[in-house]
Design goal:
Length: 158
Amino acid sequence: MTRVISFHYTLTDAAGKTLDSSAGGEPFSFMEGVSQIIPGLEREVLGLNPGTKKKIPVAASDAYGHKNDSLVVTVPKSQLPKGDDILLGDRFKGGQEDSAPVYTVTKVTDTEVVLDGNHPLAGVDLVFDIEITAVREATEDEISHGHAHGPDGHGHHH
Ligand code: ZN
């Protein structure tokens, strides 16, 4: 059978800075075997039972990969749709297709901006502090969609 595993997590970098957390919200749910979560985390979580707490370090290479310098580009503001209104931290897709990289504005000067098409967590060694809240069988809907529908299997997905 295919399982859906739910867990609460706090994600930090190797220095202990919190990057993301499910605390205060619903636990995160994923379906096994469909690469819904990063491989280094899935491998560790699959063997755990509800109630188990564990700290799972995941190296960048097993998480969001290493930074690719060729995805960091400097472009004149005049070439961008937002022009002079572009702000540090703005994010936008670099094309129409689903696979187009998402660029983050990492530097703004008077005339140019630096765009980084890497995942924000590329090159970052991660630590997941997790607590398994539930393990259940995937519903037929979930199996046909190829992803989990929340802790109870009826969540609306995006
Ligand atoms: Zn679905």
